[in-house]
Amino acid sequence: WLDFVASCFAFKGVERAHFATHFWSDPWRDAGMVLVAETTGEIAETVATLRIFDRRLYLKDGSVLRVGGIGEVCTRDDWQRKGICRTLLLHASDVMKQHGMVASCLHTSSMATVYSRCGYQSIPQLRVLVCIRLRHLSTHLSTQVTANGTSSPWLRSNGDGGGMWVRVLRVGALGAELPLHQLMAHHAAFHKGRFCGAVVRDSLEYWTTFVCANMRDTAPLGAYWMQDGGRGSSPTVEGEDGDEGGGGGGLRGFVSLKSENSRRGVGPRRFYLGDFCACAEEVAKDGGRYVLETFLNHALVVNGGCGAQSAGAEEIVLKMPRPVAESMELCGEGGQIFEEEVHHGQMYMSLTEGREISEIVEASSHVTWAVDAF
């Protein structure tokens, strides 16, 4: 199956290892949800396939929706335009209903017409380019030996709200370098009852395998808020297992950023927000804005920018989901939305009779993250 899928996507430069990682890193994988169309005869040949991903999504009303995500959809060149993909999708609907899934979702850039004929509807994803003027941080770098004996660069940021220690994480080391129980709680607090469409990440394995696998092209950062307000000369790493004892403070947020231009370019630095969450306390204050700006300041410093280390502040441009930007009031003073993008590739279908998908997923609060992609 992996060989077949890789051969179909070879024209995009996607290798077999990508699909193997997608399958084996998924804690909810089920080989029974890999659907295959084969020829009849003595030697059956695979001509088309798709995979159902078992997921749950947060909804704006605070509830959780179990969905079947559709991915790895492909048909062999000489069997295309024969209705095989449509047949597989219709069969997939029956399989998802049998497994108790009440809706289905997928992302496409080229097959929207095929999916719409099978009942899928596009729910727009609104993204904005926000110009943010970092204004409240002074910083310095430090190196701290963590509990497992490895050295890690930290950035201390002091500002109006106290102090933060920010650390760059190694991709693939989330389980070793982050208190994952705190991170899972913060992810739920940030999304539940605020946005709809984000994947529920209440599995340690999901964070350490699937999220890490999808984060290869981003620069993940972790932030710790120190109990002493950041006045210490170095961060304390005790208490990282979830309790906030030992003087170490607790995890305040998590971000995955990708730089979208080089420092040699003209104009402000540009970043793409691939993932973000903040703890409930920070959300209650300002929607997590202070945490986000701290991360951005850190990204400027460690990537060769001056950051807001001096009295003068620096402007950056961030591409992010509009509902998240609005929840942080990133417009007017301190931030300005100057461009908006509308993406129609995220599609949904209700599997519940008498309930339209527009009644379930609201476009105005629709938020998905790149690290959950399938």
Protein described:
The protein is of the alpha+beta class and 374 residues long. Helix 1 crosses helix 2. Helices cover 24% and strands 32% of the residues.
Short description:
With 374 residues, the chain is α+β, with helices and mostly antiparallel strands.
Give me some keywords for this one.
32% strand, 374 residues, single chain, six-stranded mixed beta sheet, alpha+beta
Category from helices, strands and their pairing: alpha+beta
Mean pLDDT: 80
| Quaternary class | single chain
Low-pLDDT runs of 5+ residues are 225-233, 236-248, 307-312
Give the overall shape: globular
Largest β sheet strand count, sense and barrel closure: 9 strands, mixed
Number of strands: 15
Q: What share of the residues lie within helices?
A: 10-25%
How far is the N terminus from the C terminus? Answer: 17 Å
Which strand order spans the largest sheet, edge to edge or round the barrel? 7-8-9-10-11-12-13-6-14
Alpha plus pi helix count = 10
Gyration radius, rounded: 22 Å
Order of helices and strands: HHEEEHEHEEEEEHHHEEEHHEHEE
Strand content: 25-35%
Question: What's the arrangement of secondary structure elements?
Answer:
Blueprint: H1 2-8, H2 16-24, E1 34-38, E2 46-58, E3 64-75, H3 84-98, E4 103-107, H4 112-117, E5 121-122, E6 125-134, E7 138-145, E8 151-159, E9 162-168, H5 174-177, H6 180-191, H7 204-214, E10 219-225, E11 250-259, E12 269-278, H8 280-286, H9 289-302, E13 314-321, H10 322-327, E14 335-343, E15 346-350
Parallel strand pairs: 3-4, 12-13
Antiparallel strand pairs: 1-2, 2-3, 4-15, 5-15, 6-13, 6-14, 7-8, 8-9, 9-10, 10-11, 11-12
Helix pairs in contact: 1-2
